[in-house]
């Protein structure tokens, strides 16, 4: 609006419009009460100038009419966006949109050249209508992480928020604040939660005061001077005050970049380039990789060649980078690398062990390679950890393909800490020698350079620590690495562990290196693995003399104590722990955490953007009418199988302390009447019936969730993974969707994975939903129930199933219309397909579907086969169980599943399949092409996203037909020859597919044997796809009545 008024004041050459068409357009513009006749004329002229000259005359007329219509309604075009306009906020100009588009092109080009390796955080000062950050968000897409716009005007913030809603932007936020205030930096950091930004943009006030004073009174009364007039800087010039302020803010708020790209972009007046440049520190005035679009007074500015408006052209000022800092004094993160090369099992236990030892003083979380490449991780990171795996992919990803190793070196030298375990230690050395002459030989220099060498081996070992004063026993090692110390030994290297039975070359097992201001700890031994769980437990079992459990328990305590000593030696603030085997409230007992004895509390979670779904989980009238008061402010209701006691997390006080005590405290329950004795003899002790224990459900309260609440499953990571999976699929996240089952499709539902129960240890996710009708009928669907351990799990056919360490058990509760009753059988097929797709999207891992309800690994290296042997083995990695209940005119469907994600060998898991793929790719020099390593959070998030899309399509299609080709491409059985043993004589069949009507396994006889009428069906002219005639006969087998023995190709009657 300012430029409209300025042009009205200064322009004396505006042509009078006489064309009838223009008169019609002017009349339309004048319907906007903010526009007088002269305003409308200028608006129309600007609209004509902004039209592309490549358009035909008719297209130009159509586009112009559309622009007029929007402007008459109070809107304006800003690049591809349509924004609201409202006095007294300035109207966004096409020239500004051009600058933003040019800036976006440069940023995207910098990303392509890998100068930008992470999404950007943008701060827009004097944001006005919010046009700049909103257009950047639209143009940059995933190159932008978040943008924050700031303005002093409450009217501007209100308009910005309205524009944000209009363009449906969810990563731009607006704040009312005065950038000239001395407290602005503190305010913006508090409001945004960010210490630093990557890019500052601004179209600030820059009209000199003397120019403003010469404007007509009508202009000065109408426009907001705060949006137009820039103050003076003594000795520099008038109208440039805000640029000096921006320069000072840049020093405090800009995060120095790891590559070269513009970090400040501002509009300036035509004559102000030299003045603005003089206000910037020399480091900011350097111009790099910038092409001058139009000659300007200084090479640090880009001036755009469009017609000047009232003497002011637009300039883009591009500024370059500063050096990355080291860790700050309040660094509190411990980052564990989770990129190409890592062993998922080592990653999982490294996260767990460090969390148990370092919380609550530090947060322990995994970090992707992309973050290490581009994100400013150093200032908040107390320690970087590279766990076990294979170091060649580490070298390729972090040294060859990027400059991460240099950043790690700088980080450590500036006071950071580096922990390398096994392959992470190899990666941290100057030279590596592994399996010389063997199949896995690795010989080469390492860029990170903290010195060692290695040989191969795998077993439980003993270490001499504390200068030989103590002996650590039964620690797990795989690879037999050792460190070769130069002679004389460097003064900055301390040997912290030696092998009690050393290899021939060296006995050094772990070293602590002082590097500049920081420290690096390299350990060839896997101290992250608990001794009572695989793989350490399996290695112990291979010893000639297996030690008793009591000795193993003592060694486990010693392991954790040594980890604490190691981390303390790196000058981390390790929390004090109770001694002599005692565990205080709030401290974790690793043994009970991984070996629970009884069910524990259940948390209710919902997507952070939909918090009301979790807090109102029990709000249905059918549940509320059963609710009665319980102790300590809780409420409860008695259901068919369980009693549920629920309340907010605030009611238990310190949540981690409450959970720690709950793990150690055996639950109390009243004995049943039939167990009481009236005689002299006391009743015989009986094992606890978990069904009799009330189940505590904790709802969200005022206290904010932290990963300490759920040490085995990080929900912050899960929500991030879920959002990313949906983004990759082109779907919005954290929003309600159309409820396909609601009347007229007018209702809403959440997405699969947005609302869930989580229990560290539960009886059975399937049973607790299936056998509690009040809960089953009262909770809104879709709903997920996830656990880390099931103590009374249910398998197919009613078999008991106990969850091993590393398994992911969950149940999905869904709703289906009564009309799809004959499609219920397809739910297990849909679930298997969704799981296979989520685990192995491109098929390289070898995940396949076994009819009717299992998921298998079909790859070299499992089931007794060897990698490179030319034969693929088979091993089960997941099972599916589907139960249905008919309630209130709908089917409640429960899809239970258990997936081997991080199980240790000999159990086949996704982790092992990832390692096998890595081995195959490494063999052919393609290790950089690895998919991300599996974690519990990532796997569950990917399954939820995959199932949501397929479930939505399944309901909309009313069946499975559209999935049939995809299902066949993933299953194991196409044209497989099997023997049907449920008839006499046994019949040989060939599998050809699944029937589209009832989901039966369709086969054709191989031999011309008459089948019993129970199995025989016919269809006119049927032949299999090979063209072999079958006399019209085929055999359809039900999944519930038959058992498929995959290993022997037998179909037998289910027992």
Automatic annotation (TrEMBL):
<dbReference type="GO" id="GO:0005737">
    <property type="term" value="C:cytoplasm"/>
</dbReference>
<dbReference type="Pfam" id="PF09825">
    <property type="entry name" value="BPL_N"/>
</dbReference>
<protein>
    <submittedName>
        <fullName>Biotin-acetyl-CoA-carboxylase ligase</fullName>
    </submittedName>
</protein>
<dbReference type="GO" id="GO:0004077">
    <property type="term" value="F:biotin--[biotin carboxyl-carrier protein] ligase activity"/>
</dbReference>
<dbReference type="InterPro" id="IPR029063">
    <property type="entry name" value="SAM-dependent_MTases_sf"/>
</dbReference>
<dbReference type="InterPro" id="IPR004143">
    <property type="entry name" value="BPL_LPL_catalytic"/>
</dbReference>
<dbReference type="InterPro" id="IPR045864">
    <property type="entry name" value="aa-tRNA-synth_II/BPL/LPL"/>
</dbReference>
<feature type="domain" description="BPL/LPL catalytic">
    <location>
        <begin position="750"/>
        <end position="955"/>
    </location>
</feature>
<feature type="region of interest" description="Disordered">
    <location>
        <begin position="664"/>
        <end position="685"/>
    </location>
</feature>
<dbReference type="Pfam" id="PF03099">
    <property type="entry name" value="BPL_LplA_LipB"/>
</dbReference>
<dbReference type="Pfam" id="PF13847">
    <property type="entry name" value="Methyltransf_31"/>
</dbReference>
<keyword id="KW-0436">Ligase</keyword>
<dbReference type="InterPro" id="IPR029062">
    <property type="entry name" value="Class_I_gatase-like"/>
</dbReference>
<feature type="compositionally biased region" description="Basic and acidic residues">
    <location>
        <begin position="664"/>
        <end position="675"/>
    </location>
</feature>
<comment type="similarity">
    <text>Belongs to the biotin--protein ligase family.</text>
</comment>
<dbReference type="InterPro" id="IPR004408">
    <property type="entry name" value="Biotin_CoA_COase_ligase"/>
</dbReference>
<dbReference type="InterPro" id="IPR025714">
    <property type="entry name" value="Methyltranfer_dom"/>
</dbReference>
<dbReference type="InterPro" id="IPR019197">
    <property type="entry name" value="Biotin-prot_ligase_N"/>
</dbReference>
């Amino acid at each position: 609006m300012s430029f409209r008024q300025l042009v009205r004041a200064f322009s004396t050459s505006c042509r009078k419009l006489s064309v009838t068409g223009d008169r019609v357009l002017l009349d339309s513009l004048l319907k906007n009460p903010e526009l007088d006749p002269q305003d409308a004329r200028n608006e129309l002229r600007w609209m004509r100038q902004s039209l592309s000259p490549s358009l035909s005359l008719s297209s130009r007329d159509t586009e112009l009419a559309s622009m007029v219509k929007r402007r008459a309604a109070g809107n304006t075009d800003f690049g591809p966006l349509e924004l609201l306009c409202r006095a007294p906020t300035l109207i966004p100009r096409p020239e500004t949109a051009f600058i933003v588009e040019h800036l976006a092109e440069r940023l995207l080009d910098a990303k392509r050249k890998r100068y930008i390796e992470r999404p950007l955080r943008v701060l827009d000062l004097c944001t006005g209508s919010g046009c700049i950050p909103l257009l950047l968000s639209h143009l940059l897409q995933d190159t932008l992480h978040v943008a924050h716009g700031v303005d002093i005007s409450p009217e501007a913030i209100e308009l910005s928020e309205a524009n944000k809603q209009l363009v449906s932007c969810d990563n731009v936020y607006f704040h009312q604040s005065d950038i000239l205030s001395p407290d602005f930096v503190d305010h913006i950091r508090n409001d945004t939660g960010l210490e630093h930004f990557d890019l500052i943009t601004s179209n600030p006030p820059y009209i000199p005061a003397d120019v403003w004073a010469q404007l007509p009174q009508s202009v000065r009364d109408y426009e907001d001077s705060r949006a137009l007039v820039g103050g003076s800087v003594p000795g520099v010039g008038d109208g440039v005050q805000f640029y000096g302020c921006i320069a000072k803010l840049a020093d405090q708020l800009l995060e120095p970049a790891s590559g070269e790209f513009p970090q400040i972009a501002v509009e300036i007046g035509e004559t102000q380039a030299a003045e603005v440049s003089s206000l910037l520190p020399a480091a900011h005035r350097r111009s790099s990789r910038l092409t001058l679009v139009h000659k300007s007074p200084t090479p640090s500015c880009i001036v755009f060649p469009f017609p000047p408006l009232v003497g002011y052209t637009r300039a883009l000022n591009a500024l370059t980078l500063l050096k990355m800092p080291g860790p700050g004094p309040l660094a509190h993160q411990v980052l564990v690398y989770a990129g190409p090369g890592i062993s998922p099992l080592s990653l999982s236990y490294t996260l767990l062990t460090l969390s148990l030892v370092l919380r609550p003083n530090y947060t322990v979380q995994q970090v992707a390679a992309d973050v290490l490449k581009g994100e400013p991780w150093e200032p908040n990171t107390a320690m970087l950890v590279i766990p076990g795996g294979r170091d060649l992919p580490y070298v390729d990803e972090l040294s060859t393909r990027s400059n991460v190793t240099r950043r790690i070196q700088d980080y450590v030298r500036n006071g950071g800490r580096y922990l390398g375990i096994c392959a992470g230690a190899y990666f941290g050395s100057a030279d590596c020698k592994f399996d010389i002459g063997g199949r896995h030989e690795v010989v080469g220099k390492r860029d990170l350079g903290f010195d060692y060498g290695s040989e191969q081996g795998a077993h439980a070992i003993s270490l001499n620590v504390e200068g030989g004063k103590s002996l650590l026993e039964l620690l797990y090692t795989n690879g037999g690495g050792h460190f070769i110390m130069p002679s004389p030994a460097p003064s900055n290297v301390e040997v912290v562990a030696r092998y009690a039975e050393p290899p021939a070359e060296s006995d050094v097992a772990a070293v602590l290196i002082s590097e500049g201001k920081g420290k690096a700890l390299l350990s060839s031994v896997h101290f992250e693995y608990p001794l009572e769980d695989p793989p350490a437990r399996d290695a112990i079992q291979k010893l000639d003399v297996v030690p008793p459990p009591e000795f193993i328990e003592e060694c486990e305590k010693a392991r954790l104590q040594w980890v604490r000593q190691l981390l303390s030696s790196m000058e981390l603030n390790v929390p004090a722990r109770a001694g002599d085997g005692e565990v205080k409230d709030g401290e974790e007992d690793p043994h009970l955490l991984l070996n629970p004895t009884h069910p524990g509390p259940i948390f209710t979670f919902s997507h952070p953007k939909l918090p009301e779904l979790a807090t109102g989980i029990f709000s249905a009238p059918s549940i509320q009418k059963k609710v009665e008061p319980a102790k300590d402010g809780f409420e409860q209701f008695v259901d068919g199988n369980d009693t549920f006691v629920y309340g907010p997390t605030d009611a238990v006080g310190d949540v981690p302390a409450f959970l720690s005590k709950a793990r150690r405290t055996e639950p109390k329950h009243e004995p049943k009447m039939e167990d009481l004795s009236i005689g002299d003899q006391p009743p015989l002790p009986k094992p606890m019936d978990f069904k009799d224990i009330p189940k505590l459900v904790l709802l969200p309260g005022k206290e904010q969730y932290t990963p300490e609440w759920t040490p085995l499953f990080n929900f912050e990571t899960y929500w991030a993974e879920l959002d990313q999976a949906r983004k990759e699929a082109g779907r919005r996240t954290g929003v309600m969707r159309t409820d396909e089952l609601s009347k007229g499709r007018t209702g809403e539902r959440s997405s699969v994975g947005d609302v869930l129960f989580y229990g560290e240890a539960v009886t059975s996710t399937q049973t607790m939903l299936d056998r509690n009708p009040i809960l089953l009928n009262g909770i809104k669907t879709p709903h997920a129930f996830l656990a880390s351990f099931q103590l009374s799990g249910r398998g197919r056919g009613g078999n008991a199933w106990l969850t091993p360490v590393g398994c992911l058990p969950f149940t999905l509760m869904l709703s289906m219309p009564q009309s799809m009753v004959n499609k219920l059988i397809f739910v297990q097929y849909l679930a298997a397909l969704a799981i296979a797709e989520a685990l192995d999207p491109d098929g390289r891992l070898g995940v396949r579907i076994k009819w009717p309800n299992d998921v298998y690994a079909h790859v070299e290296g499992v089931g007794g086969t060897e990698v490179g042997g030319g034969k693929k083995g088979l091993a089960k990695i997941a099972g599916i169980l589907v139960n249905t209940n008919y309630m209130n005119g709908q089917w409640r469907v429960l899809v239970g599943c258990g997936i081997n994600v991080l199980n240790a060998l000999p159990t086949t898991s996704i982790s092992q399949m990832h390692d096998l793929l890595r081995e195959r790719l490494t063999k052919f020099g393609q290790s950089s092409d690895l998919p991300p390593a599996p974690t519990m959070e990532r796997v569950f998030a990917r399954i939820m996203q995959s199932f949501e899309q397929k479930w939505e399509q399944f309901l909309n299609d009313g069946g499975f037909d559209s999935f049939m080709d995809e299902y066949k491409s993933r299953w194991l059985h196409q044209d497989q020859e099997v023997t049907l043993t449920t008839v006499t004589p046994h019949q040989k069949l060939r599998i050809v597919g699944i029937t589209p009507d009832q989901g039966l396994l369709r086969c054709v006889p191989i031999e011309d044997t008459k089948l019993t009428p129970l199995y025989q069906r016919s269809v006119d002219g049927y032949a299999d796809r090979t063209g072999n005639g079958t006399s019209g006969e085929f055999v359809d087998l039900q999944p519930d009545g038959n058992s498929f023995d995959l290993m022997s190709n037998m179909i037998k009657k289910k027992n």
